[in-house]
Design a protein that fits this description.
CATH superfamily of the largest domain: P-loop containing nucleotide triphosphate hydrolases
Structural class: alpha/beta
Helix content: 25-40%
Largest sheet: 8 strands, mixed
CATH topology of the largest domain: Rossmann fold
Number of domains: 2
Strand content: 15-25%
CATH architecture of the largest domain: 3-Layer(aba) Sandwich
Low-confidence stretches: 330-339
Strand order of the largest sheet: 6-7-8-3-9-10-12-11
Mean pLDDT: 89
Shape: globular
Bound molecules: adenosine-5'-diphosphate, magnesium ion
Radius of gyration: 21 Å
Order of helices and strands: EEEHEEHEHHHHHEHEHEEHHHHEEH
Length: about 350
């Protein structure tokens, strides 16, 4: 599959939670695509709906009690929202795998790493013998760069460091050779050197195995290094979408420009002054009727408060929803910060 071919197409996805305090539309009309060999970044501050978007793709919330999904999630031309729970189960782990921030809570404490990886292999390859599955588990651990994998395969999750556990979880996700890997803040809990190693591993596996990757992170620095395209979310909606270079060189939306200006650089570390977007993410029902970023926006105009922002398109499929986008393209906030 070439990079241009669609692997996943999310169309006008809405995820509504039914809570005792009423309905919360945590994902509100989100659309994006992921190509076969592509690494798509989803970024935005905490609470913007990144995790809900990724969990919705796999329909991980309980549709009987908790949540309603609308829109389309087309994976290899099948709308996942129309599948039965049973068919969904064969998609999860098999075709689409997911890794999380916290490996400890997704690994089972009472089984060794090897047993868990072998089990994942056996669920998806019914004929395979236990011994063969264990051998494959060792190979997968080796692929993720775990030292002495033939010994580590017998370790329990609590006997491993955070970085090693994360690698083990990646090995488990790869056990079924998924077409799409969703990585939700996979390195947030780790220290910086280990973070870089894990990111390198994900990129290397992406190159070698050719799977599509959705990388969810609040760290734009990581995105600039590894992603081909970026989706920027704010309060449950996409506000900008485009190729990584276009986004970083010519951000259209003031929110994106603010996120880029907030990335620490060597310079800012020296001066100890870092740009910050004013205010914080408001509750969903407290946001302005028009643009949800209105209260925090330095380029806001009167109509931004009342009217939903229009779609502005630039080159290479780069687009944003904004009444007053930065069309000159300079990251003016960076310059202002230097003054
Ligand atoms: N299980 C849930 N029940 C109700 N609301 C939820 C639930 N999970 C998330 N939300 C809502 O969705 C919003 C977005 O959450 P999330 O996707 O976890 O943000 P992010 O991953 O971008 O930090 C939260 O602020 C919360 O209001
Ligand atoms: Mg999250």
């Amino acid at each position: 599959m070439t990079q241009k071919e669609k692997l996943l197409e999310v169309k006008d996805l809405k995820t509504v939670f039914h809570t005792i305090r009423g309905r919360i539309t945590a994902v509100d009309g989100v659309s994006f695509e992921v190509g076969g060999g592509e690494i798509l970044g989803i970024v935005g501050e905490s609470g913007c709906g990144k995790s809900v978007t990724s969990q919705s793709i796999l329909r991980l919330y309980d549709e009987k009690k908790q949540v309603t999904y609308t829109g389309q999630i087309n994976f290899k031309n099948t709308n996942l929202l129309e599948l039965s729970e049973r068919d969904m189960q064969s998609i999860r782990g098999n075709e689409i795998a997911m890794i999380f921030q916290d490996a400890l809570s997704s690994l089972n404490p009472v089984f060794t790493i090897g047993e868990q990886i072998a089990e994942a292999i056996r669920v998806h390859n019914k004929g395979i013998k236990k011994k063969q599955a264990m051998e494959r588990a060792v190979q997968l651990l080796e692929l993720t760069g775990i030292p002495a994998p033939e010994e580590r395969v017998h370790a329990y999750p609590h006997e491993m460091s955070g970085g090693m556990r994360q690698r083990a979880m990646i090995a488990m996700a790869l056990a079924c050779e998924p077409k799409l890997l969703i990585a939700d803040e996979p390195t947030t809990a780790l220290d910086v050197t280990i973070q870089a190693q894990i990111m390198e591993l994900i990129c290397e596996l992406h190159d070698r195995l050719g799977m599509g990757v959705i990388l969810i992170t609040h760290d734009l620095g990581v995105v600039s290094q590894v992603c081909t395209r970026v989706v920027v979310m704010y309060l449950g909606q996409i506000i900008e979408n485009g190729p990584v270079q276009d986004i970083f060189q010519r951000p259209l939306h003031p929110y994106t420009a603010g996120l880029i200006a907030s990335i620490p650089t060597l310079e800012t570390e020296k001066r100890k002054k870092l740009y910050m977007i004013k205010g914080s993410v408001p509750a969903m029902d407290k946001a302005a009727k028009g643009c949800r970023f209105y209260d925090r926006c330095e380029r806001a105009m009167d109509r931004c408060q009342e009217c939903p922002p229009p779609l502005v398109e630039s080159e290479n499929g780069h687009c944003a929803y904004c009444w007053n986008p930065n069309l000159e393209g300079a990251t003016s906030l960076r310059e202002r910060r230097a003054l």
